[in-house]
Design goal:
Elements: E1 8-13, H1 17-27, E2 33-39, E3 56-60, H2 69-80, E4 84-89, H3 94-103, E5 107-110, H4 115-131
Parallel strand pairs: 1-2, 1-3, 3-4, 4-5
Length: 146
């Protein structure tokens, strides 16, 4: 990557601190990715401080059958604000995957994905993000609680 290319801004959202730390460490191995923040709660995605709006939010699901209305609402809200969502789950069935994708997530993958594949997925999502125009309802960052 040359010095003129912009890095992909990624925010990690997962209930488990260890998962957030491991994902951040794995992704920081790529010069193409910048971790702009992490959080363990879906109800307050980031602190009130202003930050660079992420292009991609990695949303970790607890288990694989979590499709609460809050989770689906968060995916919709992030995508409406022009942020791509990549969902990671320990296991997931087709019905749950379909709900998450219908809510607007770009990918729904298993958490055991290896680092090069995960980085490639993020790069692909970011490329799609650059091609697609922001929705008219896109607003600023940080995302605040509903």
């Amino acid at each position: 990557m040359n010095g003129l290319m912009k890095r992909i801004r990624v925010f990690i959202l997962d209930n488990h601190l260890g998962v957030r730390q491991a994902l951040a460490a794995r992704l920081q191995s790529s010069p193409a990715i910048e971790i702009v923040g992490t959080s363990g709660t879906r109800h307050w995605v980031v602190s009130k401080r202003r930050m660079a709006k992420p292009q991609v939010v990695i949303l970790g699901l607890a288990g694989g059958n979590e499709t609460s209305d809050d989770c689906l609402r968060l995916v919709r809200r992030l995508t409406q604000q022009g942020t791509a969502v990549l969902v990671l789950a320990s296991y997931i069935d087709d019905r749950v995957r379909e709900k998450i994708l219908q809510a607007g997530a770009r990918r729904c993958l298993l958490k055991n994905i290896n680092t090069p594949q995960l980085i490639a997925e993020i790069e692909q999502i970011a490329a799609e993000y650059e091609i697609l125009p922001l929705p008219p309802s896109a607003s600023g960052w940080p995302l605040t609680p509903p």
